[in-house]
Write the structure tokens for this entry.
Amino acid sequence: MVLVTSVRDYINRMLQDISGMKVLILDSETVSNVSIVYSQSELLQKEVFLVEMIDSISVSKESMSHLKAVYFIRPTSENIQKLRYQLANPRFGEYHLFFSNLLKDTQIHILADSDEQEVVQQVQEYYADFVAGDPYHFTLNMASNHLYMIPAVVDPSGLQRFSDRVVDGIAAVFLALKRRPVIRYQRTSDTAKRIAQETAKLMYQHESALFDFRRTESSPLLLVIDRRDDPVTPLLNQWTYQAMVHELIGLQDNKVDLKAIGSLSKDQQVEVVLSSEQDAFFKSNMYENFGDIGMNIKRMVDDFQQVAKSNQNIQTVEDMARFVDNYPEYKKMQGNVSKHVTLVTEMSKLVEARKLMMVSQTEQDLACNGGQGAAYEAVTDLLSNESVSDIDRLRLVMLYALRYEKENPVQLMQLFNKLASRSPKYKPGLVQFLLKQAGMEKRTGDLFGNRDLLNIARNMARGLKGVENVYTQHQPLLFQTIESITRGRLRDVDYPFVGDHFQQGRPQEVVIFMVGGTTYEESRSVALQNATNSGIRFILGGSAVLNSKRFLKDLEEAQRISRSGSHMV
Amino acid sequence: MATRNRTLLFRKYRNSLRSVRAPLSSSSSLTGTRSGVGPVIEMASTSLMNPNRSYAPVSTDDPGNSSKGAITVGLPPAWVDVSEEISVNIQRARTKMTELGKAHAKALMPSFGDGKEDQHNIESLTQEITFLLKKSEKQLQRLSAAGPSEDSNVRKNVQRSLATDLQLLSMELRKKQSTYLKRLRQQKEDGVDLEMNLSRNRYRPEEDDFGDMLNEHQMSKIKKSEEVSVEREKEIQQVVESVNDLAQIMKDLSALVIDQGTIVDRIDYNIENVATTVEDGLKQLQKAERTQRHGGMVKCASVLVILCFIMLLLLILKEIFL
């Protein structure tokens, strides 16, 4: 609730003190921040009758001085330039400027200089600089997410930009929560270390006064970790509703774009919204697995058919009156039912076409169970299978390589060759690049449960007991990290504190930021953990929300840049 | 949630830069009053929409500055008056609805009088409210704008917001009416039952005067049930009428009102759509312009006009030479 509520509160405060007809002006990033928590009808209630992007606002020359302009933008240099021009030629009666992060004094100076007409009424910093998709999950929607994999020497300015954006986002989250945390980071990741140190500098030195909040008995914890410590989770195919939609179709800002599927009939919805805040069915089913969802949807359809039948059976005048009264509810229910049915149908079709049941079983085995020989056989078989798509083949080989990196290098080589011969679009060396980035030496955590004695024992016990559902047996590494934090046993060696920070006992609030992006499987772990009311509240955030396509794209981009970088050197 | 106000710093910079820019002008006093004028006007305006009528003082100092007075007169466009009228009507309807609620409650209370006066009051109030709603709905249609422009988006959004208010009001009215009728019916039934019981009780001890008494009681019972059925018919008629009226309003409004929770209710979807419709509109306009220019109609018309002139000329020549 916490993240969504804070962004909504910011927007409410922005709009409520300004009376009269307003126009809301956003930039390409804040439009996601706002759209995901605030609906158009709510804006209309607050008398905001026009919403525009800062890029297109200067195109038209109409003067609309009966409107008051409310700007909500990020304080980037491009936005400041655009704003300069718009202030010098104002179109609206009043200008109220809200920035989603910290302004530099020079920027304020520039704006003051261009405000010759003195139309600006207020300049505020409202720190809603993150996309709050779910109550405990946020993202920064960064386009150049791949920069975290590139060492500083190759592209120092790119890495600096990446780091700045992440630090801004994390700072905004803590300002919205009104907390100042103790910071820890993953030792093996340079990017995580850099981000952790810069965040500490911002919160404790540069803007120390701003972050000086009322101290609670135990400081919250900010843990900065690297995606590369767990490359397995984004590669796996998912079977719980929200994660599955993102993996198979794609979920952006809680919207699903069905255009890409292409097999829809004319009158069906092309874009749908999947938001746990607005859709009760989705809220209760977003973490359920595919089989259970099917049953729940069938139940929903049956209920709806009952209602529809009773609506058709209009005999008395009272029935008529009741129908007219309940019509809006009925229409809403109909829209919701058709949305979920469409989604599940499309996903079933994709599962069938790509033979994902078969592929996913092998994937889960690779991720969770042992047996190199059997694994090799299974992967080879699937590589030879014609109906398996290229991306699935690539994922299988990657998972195998991550698991059995050191065992039997000959067979590994054979798999690489087979992959290259089978998949024409496969860029050679991608799997090796992945191993270089996220191989055994680079990882801190016990990804496969075969380092720590306790984990080995646990795995054996699980193998003996058998699993409930073969397809959802994987637990992301994040789950183990959360467990360690809950028990107060997060190792200092692996996750050191920044500077001279120290924390006694367990924190009550933890924000985990994953550099490189989170997945919906991990946000599900966090949500389920929070539901157990263990006394610690976890919030998860990342630079993007990954599915296997996005993760592979980031890898390819990083590989391309590394190659060209090494050529230049 | 933390915020930080940078307005003071901004104003400080602005003032210092202003004095640097125009050190000799007396604009500082004028701009000082200007910020005072704004809020006063806002407080004076009591309309629901409360548009910002900011009348900036005409600058009497350097003519160089006044050239930038693009926002000196901030009068809103004409359609804002229509929307203001609609919101005033909605407000009136709301107050009448509370009155109606009170009248309903009064009519339902047991009274000694006939209750016809209360009925009349209720009927007139209901009619007034329905009339207001219908009028507002017609005016709402007038707000629809032609052509894609920023102003038309504002109009569309104002229309949507008013349509939502109207729809809520009409649904409220429906609910109030139906609960009132239900309670009324219940009361009548109780009343009739009570009377039936009373008549039955009276009937018992007078069993011996069978013949006449029976006929009389039967006749009165028949008459009573007739009255009841006539009243019920009238009520049903009323219900049907109001269902019709309001169903019509709701049908028209549902085209305008946004379905909450769907993609249409997303801000980013609306921005993208606006962009594409504006582009499409522009393309269509350009196409229309092109076809019009090269249109056959224009050529035909010009040819005909030329012919007319030639004929006229021939006629005149004929007159001259004959």
